[in-house]
Design a protein that fits this description.
alpha/beta, Elongation Factor Tu (Ef-tu), domain 3, Rossmann fold, 2 domains, seven-stranded mixed sheet, binds flavin-adenine dinucleotide, binds FE2/S2 (inorganic) cluster
């Protein structure tokens, strides 16, 4: 669905990273963790295109705050990297944005009783909070492995901890948590009865996917690609599927077939 939404807050949670809350219609409560939105600042013509962001959270206000006609909100967590995100970071309470959401295919929770292992690299943590909330509500045991280059890239960990999620933090320079790559920490804890949900830079996702395959652990990855339409019309966001060859092309649209894929669906070489 497409709708106009009002910015409720837009806070810098770490240098260069913002968390923005916006009003949303009740129907968005039917969205799945891992789905995304396409956002455009109302009346802005530059940049013209919408920008994709994972749903960081979707929820309802407590009754005492729900007086002004809107009862539902959504949030995004974003990193300022260029024109569009710089423009977003300047928005304030009361500004309007145009949203197209929920889009794409989200995470599949898998059978009850497994240990659910979330792996986030930097801003890749964004879609994992909504997932953690959903899994915890279903009574699942959830662990989070969060990695970044330095402490500034480790975002919103206390929010995960408040849900009761066991968290493991690592940074390349050792300024927070263990020194090293998130995949090194993950490997020490991998075992049977687990299911992995990962989002982050492609090299990290490749390492997680291959590690999961070698341990026989099911793994879903949330992928990124440049997006123009967000709905499968422009073919601007394709990735190679596992069976792709020059003779028999096998392409997947990140916006429509993903952004969440089973790791074995994609070609990692
Ligand atoms: C499904 C999906 C979900 C996403 N979720 C989030 C999220 O929750 N939080 C978040 O901060 N970002 C997320 N992104 C990335 C986000 O869409 C881009 O950072 C944003 O569009 C950049 O817009 P810009 O105008 O600021 O930068 P631009 O001026 O368009 O680009 C600036 C720089 O960023 C690079 N860039 C642009 N888009 C991407 C991309 N998709 N992946 C990697 N590099 C890119 C460009 O190559 C360029 O170097 C997501 C992307 C996808 C496809
Ligand atoms: S963004 Fe247009 S097809 Fe995916």
């Amino acid at each position: 669905m497409q709708f106009k939404s009002m910015v409720l807050s837009n806070v810098e949670v770490s240098p260069g990273y913002f968390r923005m809350r916006m009003t949303a219609p009740q129907e968005l409560l039917e969205s799945s963790p891992g789905q995304f939105l396409m956002l455009k600042v109302v009346d802005a013509i530059d940049p013209l295109l919408r920008r994709p962001f994972g749903l960081f959270d979707v929820g309802t206000f407590a009754p005492e705050y729900a007086g002004c006609g809107t009862q539902c909100y959504t949030e995004i967590l974003y990193k300022v990297v260029g024109k569009g995100t710089k423009m977003l970071s300047a928005l304030h309470h009361g500004d309007l944005v145009d949203l197209l959401t929920p889009l794409g295919k989200g995470f599949a929770a898998g059978p009850a009783g497994e240990e659910k292992v979330l792996v986030g690299g930097g801003i890749g943590l964004a879609p994992l909070y909504y997932l953690a909330k959903d899994l915890v509500m279903k009574g699942e045991k959830v662990r989070l492995f969060a990695g970044g280059r330095n402490r500034d890239d480790i975002l919103c960990i206390t929010e995960f901890e408040r849900l009761g999620v066991e968290t493991y933090v690592s940074t390349d320079d050792g300024t927070l948590g263990e020194r090293g790559l998130v995949t090194q920490v993950l490997e020490q804890h991998l075992g049977s009865g687990m299911r992995i949900f990962a989002c982050g830079p492609t090299p990290m996702l490749k390492a997680v996917a291959l590690m999961a395959q070698s341990h026989g652990v099911p793994c879903q990855v949330s992928m990124e690609a440049g997006m123009a339409c967000g709905v499968g019309a422009c073919l601007g966001c394709v990735l190679k599927g596992a069976n792709h060859t020059d003779e028999t092309p096998d392409y997947r649209c990140v916006c429509k077939d993903g952004p969440v894929f089973d790791s074995f669906e994609l070609q990692w070489s």
